[in-house]
């Protein structure tokens, strides 16, 4: 085939071309980020089709996400200059395995119309089995069992093939429970996610005829992101490739970031042994990033031991150095990035204008997104969250907000429906129906309906008890919210009349709405529900709940907060609008953006505390690979930032710059933080100093921004109140006092806070929990930072 008839080959360098043209036999493309692995893989598909080596449905192409599959199909079409019809076997491992399993379900004792269980169903099933086996489910929670079983499935171990070394798990109960679980799934004609691969591998292992049929059918196999395959996926591929041996895998050992989910980077290193005579192509030219970005990424990853080591170079000389900036706290970080995004859009930084859709913010943990979302919503900057719902749309946030809504209004039936059995209270569909009927018959809210039902003893047993507790709780919380409507006199400190109003628990002392929120989450059992949850997602959900409580701090009361959220949730921008992308580092694998922001580079956040606590380097090295993935997403501008303080539950915690920052090669980094009083290490050089004036200036920008005005107008049109700005005050700079602006102080009733204004002997203080108050200076003592 001549290059003339295959013009897409001209877009490749010689090494890529070799990988594309070596159509027959095993090929391994092992190369660093941005070297055109995915491009070569895609071109290979085009070439297979164009040269007539295979029909679309004879190609098996595995991608990491459905989105990547869709993009690959589009790119092939572009290369060929015509739409590609019928590539049924281009997709993720799971999507492809569902199709295979439907065809051969009977071979593993299922029917072809099997259902795929979600996590909830799976847990309910495991719980039944644990109880039936007479095991204490408190000590051996279903969640823990489910993650053991998932792990085994990732390693392709069935109950029959489970190695002896594994049998100790779950106090030796797990193997029998695993067998019982698989048996039960069969009876239900159901599978869980892990089964999709496991069953297909089992079928291939036990039924040569079926395996051979597919070995013949799939003439060419292509796999992207090979470094992140787990054992089951690896076996599956090796079995299928056993016939023609036309398998092409591409990957980068430095980007292996799914070890925690059972991925084995060893798979890529073993390729040449598994497929003797494989063509191994190394790509060294990076086409994505400028030289500084590439050098910074390489500098970081070099600290890992036991890597293959690769040469990477780029022809894109010059460009900007990686930018490093330290901030006072997380809010300031979000504010700065918001401003920066606007500046970049206008090209005011002296570069070409970079639009919002060319920018991405990549976070280590999804709870980091909240600060950005709030900021962007406030200034009306369009954004989208990829790979997960936006913060206020997350399940745990909606659950928690439903509790808050009920506390504010006990008539909120939708909120009641949402949480009546969350966490589980033994109030199933039947009980809920009864409540609905009682409410309708009496023309009252569900809460009232439930009360009537209880009084009439129409609900009994455990359900009745837990319902009574829930109703009591709702009443208590509601009374507490109402307490907020009555001003409480506070003779020793409060100057502004009626300023100090706080919720109070029945008969108790006044509490802040933040404390109330914490109490609600605790008393309802909702926090405990996630604390007892042993799935990998649970810690993230707890973090999100903490973030939610933190978000309350900028509001005067629960109601104002709920209105704010209702308002911003409605602030959807239209699809055609350019938006900045917010996503996790994990989700960003394989993607690229002209400008990338990497916030939150602090020890304990990135690298994560868990990785730091681990003995050995495994966890830490995986975090470092994640850092490498992050930096190498950037084409032109890469900005790393960290905050010196993060607020957790209203408490300031100071954070150290990430150890990865010290690993950045200085020659390729620009420290943007004004050089402060600090000596010492590289990270320390970027330590921020707080600038109140700067902050105020940028707040003024907010109020002048079109987004803010738009929102305000909409809010006013609906009679809604606006979120309160905690630090928006006029400062008389000539005031004399022993206290200075920004000083951290303590008040015996309101706790810790910072001085925001001084008027003679009166101070205005933004308390961390109690909000802004004016107090007489003599009641204030200085506090350590
Ligand atoms: P990652 O490891 O991050 O997945 P990758 O190796 O898959 O990266 P690609 O995404 O395929 O890299 O390519 C990176 C960028 O370089 C893309 O924008 C791609 O279009 C471009 N590119 C790849 N090869 C060439 C080439 N030979 N000439 C010009 N541009 C190229
Ligand atoms: Mg790629």
TrEMBL record:
Domain of life, source organism: Bacteria
Enzyme class: isomerase
UniProt domain UvrD-like helicase C-terminal: residue ranges: 291-590
Keywords: ATP-binding, DNA-binding, Helicase, Hydrolase, Isomerase, Nucleotide-binding
Keyword DNA-binding part of the UniProt annotation: yes
GO cellular component: cytosol; DNA helicase complex
Reaction equations catalysed: Couples ATP hydrolysis with the unwinding of duplex DNA by translocating in the 3'-5' direction; ATP + H2O = ADP + phosphate + H(+)
Name of this chain's protein: DNA 3'-5' helicase
Protein species of origin: Aliiruegeria haliotis
Taxonomic lineage from the root: Bacteria, Pseudomonadati, Pseudomonadota, Alphaproteobacteria, Rhodobacterales
């Amino acid at each position: 085939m001549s290059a003339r008839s295959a013009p897409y080959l001209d877009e490749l360098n010689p090494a890529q071309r070799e990988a594309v043209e070596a159509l027959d036999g095993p090929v391994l493309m092992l190369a660093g980020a941005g070297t055109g692995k995915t491009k070569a893989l895609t071109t290979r598909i085009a070439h297979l089709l164009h040269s007539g080596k295979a029909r679309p449905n004879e190609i098996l192409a595995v991608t990491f996400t459905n989105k990547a599959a869709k993009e690959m199909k589009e790119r092939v079409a572009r290369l060929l200059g015509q739409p590609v019809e019928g590539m049924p076997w281009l997709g993720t491992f799971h999507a492809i395995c569902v199709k295979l399993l439907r065809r051969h379900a009977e071979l593993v004792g299922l029917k072809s119309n099997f259902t795929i269980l979600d996590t909830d169903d799976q847990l309910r099933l495991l719980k039944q089995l644990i109880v039936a086996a007479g095991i204490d489910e408190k000590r051996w929670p279903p969640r823990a069992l489910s993650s053991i079983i998932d792990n085994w499935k990732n390693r392709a171990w069935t109950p029959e093939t489970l190695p002896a070394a594994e049998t100790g798990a779950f106090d030796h109960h797990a193997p029998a429970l695993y067998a019982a679980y698989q048996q039960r799934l069969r009876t239900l004609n159901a599978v869980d996610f892990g089964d999709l691969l496991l069953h297909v591998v089992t079928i291939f292992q036990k039924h040569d005829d079926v395996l051979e049929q597919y070995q013949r059918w799939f003439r060419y196999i292509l796999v992207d992101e090979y470094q992140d395959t787990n054992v089951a996926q690896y076996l599956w591929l090796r079995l299928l490739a056993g016939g023609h041996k036309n398998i092409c895998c591409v990957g980068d050992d430095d980007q292996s970031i799914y070890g925690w989910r059972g991925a084995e980077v060893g798979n890529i290193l073993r390729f040449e042994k598994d497929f003797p005579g494989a063509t191994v192509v190394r790509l060294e030219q990076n086409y994505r990033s400028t030289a500084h970005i590439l050098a910074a990424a390489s500098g970081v990853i070099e600290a890992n031991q036991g890597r293959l080591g690769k040469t990477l170079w780029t022809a894109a000389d010059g460009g900007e150095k990686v930018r490093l900036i330290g901030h006072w706290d997380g809010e300031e970080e979000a504010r700065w990035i918001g401003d920066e995004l606007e500046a970049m859009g206008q090209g005011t930084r002296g570069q070409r204008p970079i639009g919002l859709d060319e920018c991405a913010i990549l976070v280590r943990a999804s709870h980091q997104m909240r600060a950005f979302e709030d900021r962007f919503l406030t200034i009306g900057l369009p954004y989208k969250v990829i790979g997960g719902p936006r913060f206020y749309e997350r399940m745990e946030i909606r659950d928690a907000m439903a509790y808050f809504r009920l506390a504010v209004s006990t008539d909120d039936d939708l909120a009641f429906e949402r949480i009546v059995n969350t966490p589980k209270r033994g109030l199933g569909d039947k009980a809920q129906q009864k409540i609905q009927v009682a409410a309708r018959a009496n023309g009252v809210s569900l809460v009232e309906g439930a009360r009537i039902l209880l009084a009439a003893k129409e609900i009994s047993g455990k359900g009745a008890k837990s319902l009574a507790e829930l109703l009591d709780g709702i009443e208590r919380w509601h009374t507490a919210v109402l307490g907020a409507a009555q001003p409480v006199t506070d003779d020793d400190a409060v100057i502004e009349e009626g300023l100090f109003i706080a919720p109070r628990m029945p008969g108790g002392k006044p509490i802040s709405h933040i404390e109330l929120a914490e109490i609600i989450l605790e008393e309802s059992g909702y926090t405990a529900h996630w604390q007892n949850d042993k799935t990998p997602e649970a810690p993230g959900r707890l973090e999100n709940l903490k973030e939610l409580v933190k978000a309350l701090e900028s509001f005067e009361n629960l109601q104002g907060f709920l209105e704010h959220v209702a308002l911003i949730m409605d602030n959807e921008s239209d699809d055609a609008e350019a938006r900045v992308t917010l996503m996790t580092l994990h989700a960003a694998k394989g993607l690229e953006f002209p400008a990338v922001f990497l916030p939150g580079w602090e020890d304990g956040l990135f690298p994560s505390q868990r990785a730091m606590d681990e003995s050995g380097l495994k966890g830490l090295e995986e975090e470092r690979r994640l850092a490498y993935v992050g930096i190498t997403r950037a084409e032109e501008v890469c900005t790393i930032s960290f905050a010196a303080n993060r607020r957790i539950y209203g408490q300031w915690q100071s954070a150290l710059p990430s150890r990865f920052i010290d690993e950045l090669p200085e020659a390729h980094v620009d420290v943007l933080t004004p050089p402060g009083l600090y000596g010492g290490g590289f990270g320390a050089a970027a330590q921020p100093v707080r600038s109140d004036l700067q902050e105020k200036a940028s707040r003024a920008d907010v109020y002048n921004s079109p987004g803010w005005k738009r929102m305000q107008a909409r809010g006013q049109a609906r009679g809604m109140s606006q979120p309160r700005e905690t630090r928006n005050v006029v400062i008389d700079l000539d005031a004399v006092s022993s206290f200075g602006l920004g000083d951290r102080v303590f008040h015996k009733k309101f706790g810790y806070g910072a001085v925001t204004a001084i008027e003679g002997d009166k101070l205005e203080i933004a308390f961390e929990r109690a909000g802004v108050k004016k107090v007489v200076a003599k009641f204030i003592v200085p506090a350590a930072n």
